[in-house]
């Protein structure tokens, strides 16, 4: 049953990763990855970006054109601008809907493959021993706990294995995140100190009060 | 300058007159619109006079709350169509979109006073003021219904300044949607309401539900018919009036785009109040203004190459009265040639 051991571990790892990185970030990454394939949807998005660029160019031209001196040119640009804007808006909702659909699908898959599996596998393989404890090494109550709830006595049950994986991974994740956070914070504070050393503007109020004081001294 | 005003012979250039409107016999509704003070009323009166020469009967309606038809023809017009003095097939009327609703409702209440549905006016009034803009649309529809029954061959609308006009033309679509919803609801929940209201469908304040619904349904039918007619380019066209100045041009461009959105045909622009100083004139203001007008005129010709751009001169007299209007109207058909 070593493959089941690995499966459980991988599932718990995925759950922990999703929890730490965040579902939205993962969705975004996958979405970008999905769009990098030459699908019709990716082409639509590329078109939309192109159109957006075009729109910005037209808007730039429109702003650069004097409506009073070159009315005809301005009006033509304006028509183009309005048309492009209209098309962009129309397309935007469509594309957003496709994105939402993708997200929904992804969320469903993620939930089934992590939370679903987390619940289903222990139920299904409840009676199966993951591995056997060496005979006689542990007292009865440890063996009883290790085989909880339904695995044969003297073995480690799937639920306990899952629980152990979760606990270990959570600890590791916390440690990694903590270390990363510390590193980032120290780097930031270093940078901030340097910045402070570089620029130290005199606060206006202080400067004013200093002046007043010097006057008083005089 | 005169080169531009000479009738161009090649086929694809649009001629600088409103002859195409006169020739299009199928036209039933003609709107004349533009910014305030550019000469909409003068243009619509002139167009009406020219149309009266080639049509069996023409009706000129002013929907502008600041009525100018009476001033233009030096004759008092009211809510009823009245023949213009000196014409036997040209009538005019002035409607006020706001007050005509009040009149309409009051008249209805009076007319129905004998029957047991005297409160319908009140109900309609409640409804009318519940939806923004519906009052104007209703009165407009009512006027159109009247006008249709009067069997004029062509009807010219002298509309209120731009924004107002566009709102007016939008109403049919808006109202049609709202009313379709209302009547759908009433058919769905009609039985339920009937059960609640009792045997004779009486509403709490002595009104009758089915009567109100019937009324709304006929109104909706009228409006949707009018809507379809307005969007038919064989039946309806919009004449834009402007002066060669920035704001007026800006409004015209906006209006043309919006009309295109509503699907209302427009292919004529009347450029009014052009200055043609006599050669050798030393009027500084006139030449300066002429230069500015020339600039915008060139822009108009460049931008609206698919339009009949009619150029009308600024006269030294006020265009009022039948004779002057007739003289002015000639220039809508025969391009004005500036004195050289």
In terms of structural class, how would the helical and strand content of chain A be classed? mainly alpha
- For the report, how would you describe the main beta sheet of chain B? 8 strands, mixed
Summed up, the helix count of chain A is 7
**How widely separated are the two ends of chain B?**
10 Å
SS-derived structural category of chain B: alpha/beta
* Order of SSEs of chain B: HHEHEHEEHHHEHHEHEHEH
Mean pLDDT of chain A: 86
Rg of chain A, nearest Å: 31 Å
Sheet-strand content of chain B, in percent, reads 5-15%
Spatial strand order of the main sheet of chain B? 3-4-2-5-1-6-7-8
Strand order of the largest sheet of chain A: 1-2
Give structural notes.
The complex is a heterodimer of chains A (218) and B (340). Chain A has 218 residues and is mainly α. Chain A has helices spanning 2-21, 23-35, 40-64, 71-124, 140-146, 158-198, 204-217; strands at residues 131-132, 155-156. The longest helix of chain A is centred in the middle third of the chain and has 54 residues, at 71-124. The termini of chain A are far apart. With 340 residues, chain B is of the alpha/beta class. Chain B has one domain: Rossmann fold, CATH 3.40.50. Chain B has an eight-stranded mixed sheet with strand order 3-4-2-5-1-6-7-8, sandwiched between helices. The A-B interface holds A 67-72, 75-76, 78-79, 82 and B 246, 249-250, 253, 257, 295-296, 298-300, 302-303.
Secondary structure layout plus pairing:
The complex is a heterodimer of chains A (218) and B (340).
Chain A: H1 2-21, H2 23-35, H3 40-64, H4 71-124, E1 131-132, H5 140-146, E2 155-156, H6 158-198, H7 204-217
Antiparallel strand pairs in A: 1-2
Helix pairs in contact in A: 1-4, 1-6, 3-4
Chain B: H1 2-5, H2 19-23, E1 29-34, H3 40-54, E2 58-62, H4 69-73, E3 82-83, E4 90-94, H5 99-111, H6 120-130, H7 134-149, E5 154-158, H8 162-197, H9 209-230, E6 236-242, H10 246-262, E7 268-274, H11 284-303, E8 308-313, H12 322-333
Parallel strand pairs in B: 1-5, 1-6, 2-4, 2-5, 6-7, 7-8
Antiparallel strand pairs in B: 3-4
Subcellular location (chain B): Cytoplasm; Endoplasmic reticulum
Family (chain B): Belongs to the arsA ATPase family.
GO molecular function (chain B): ATP binding; ATP hydrolysis activity; metal ion binding
